[in-house]
């Protein structure tokens, strides 16, 4: 046989072996490639479901946070206009305010004024449907600066209170006449539900 014929047979055999090798490799690896493609598709579907569920969880968290803020608003309203008169808490608040402002509490009188409804439009969305008023008459002793401090503290207190009237007179005792002390009579309304 001639050299060229041997070479052609050798090249043909090499080409046939190469084609057979590619066919064998393709046959064996094609299912693996197909499996990888299927797994990638499944991963993308799972990732899409995860993203959807993650967004739902984030929406739920924001709703919970909004609910928590509404609870804090409700609690603040309950402190401002409590469900009952809570006289013991009111007395403690007034005593603390009076002591810290430098006044002394001489007397206190309570009077129930009645039930009122808010002047705004009545709707199911009103948090406070109606409220009751408790009128307090306080007898205080101290100087004018202490009274201003006391008024400031009452104004900024969490409990809703309106001052109706303030009257004052000079002190009647001989030891307090020239000391700058006054006797104050303060009437204020306190509200509850």
Determine and state the CATH class of the largest domain.
Alpha Beta
Spell out the CATH superfamily of the largest domain.
Answer: Ribosomal protein S6/Translation elongation factor EF1B
Averaged pLDDT? 84
Tell how many strands the DSSP assignment holds: 4
Do you know the CATH topology of the largest domain?
Alpha-Beta Plaits
What is the percentage of strand-forming residues? 15-25%
Shape by Cα distribution: rod-shaped
Give the end-to-end Cα distance, rounded to a whole number of Å: 117 Å
Structural class: alpha+beta
Round the Cα radius of gyration to an integer and report it: 43 Å
Q: Can you name the CATH architecture of the largest domain?
A: 2-Layer Sandwich
Total domain units: 2
Task: Write structural notes for this entry.
The protein is α+β, with helices and mostly antiparallel strands. The chain folds into two domains: 1-80; 87-192, Ribosomal protein S6/Translation elongation factor EF1B (Alpha-Beta Plaits, 2-Layer Sandwich), CATH 3.30.70.60. Helix content is 55%, strand content 24%. It has three helices and four strands. The chain has helices at 3-80, 87-101, 144-156; strands at residues 104-116, 131-142, 161-170, 182-192. The chain has a four-stranded antiparallel β-sheet with strand order 1-2-4-3. α2 (87-101) packs across α3 (144-156). The protein starts with a helix and ends with a strand.
